[in-house]
Hints:
Elements: E1 9-11, H1 14-17, H2 20-50, H3 58-64, E2 73-77, H4 83-90, E3 95-100, H5 103-116, E4 120-124, E5 138-144, H6 154-164, E6 165-176, E7 183-185, E8 191-193, E9 203-205, E10 226-228, H7 233-242, E11 245-253, E12 275-282
Parallel strand pairs: 2-3, 2-5, 3-4, 5-6
Antiparallel strand pairs: 1-9, 6-12, 7-8, 9-10, 11-12
Amino acid sequence: MGDDPAETLRPATPAEAGDVRAMHAATRAAWDEAAERYEGWLAGAIELIRSGGTNLFGVEVELIGDLHGRCRRAIHLQCAGGRDTLSLWNLGAEEVVGVDFSPRMLELAARLTAATGAPARWVLSDVLDTPHELDGTADLVYTGRGSLMWLQDLDAWAAGIARLLSPTGRFVLFEGHPIEWLFDANEDGHWVATDYDYFAGPEASKGWAPEYIDRLSIPEAEQSWKFARAWTLGEVITALLGASLRLERVTEHPIDWWGGHSDVRPEERGRVPLSFSVVGRRQE
């Protein structure tokens, strides 16, 4: 963050918190700005996908499984620059569809497709508004790795997942655990409690953590406000159940998905859940 945290991090005002679409629009502008960092990663992404590799974590590959002959279409919600999306193609999906609200991110995804020849389609849309022509077509809906925090309506998100899934399709989520914000490392690398409020709701911020996006060419004070929130685990599960999804597996993991806790001692890493996963299906 900047020199004065009060100028770059604050709770959302009541008016802001009551306008989901406005918060998403602001966050979209921030992600358009952050696309410059993904631009620097494009060459590596092309090499990775061309080589048949994956940008997914091992636990994600295990949850998703071998898609050869089992997945005609995989839909990746909040796909950003497309590395994870095309990783699903390398796992065996016949076609992949990436959905994101950032035009600049999807421009990079299109360049990645052109360089790799992947059978990919990129849809510019808020994930709350995925086109109805995709309804019931996904043998896999995948999302995660820092996606939920940018959403301000989990019920609409979950309803969209249920709408996209084919009758036999699966939903796979691997995401940061909301409790990770309650802990940090002290100077000796031991876990200590932070003053974060688990039930705080949406926050507005400028700037990006070095482990996540890092500094941009735009001065931090001039960057767009973005809105994030740490949805509780209960809120996530309740939203999915409310969308009539049948959950087959909910697992908590000590995996540091974004490298934000690299200063924690190795022997302490297994003590705190830093991520979680959900596997489910549409309930008929």
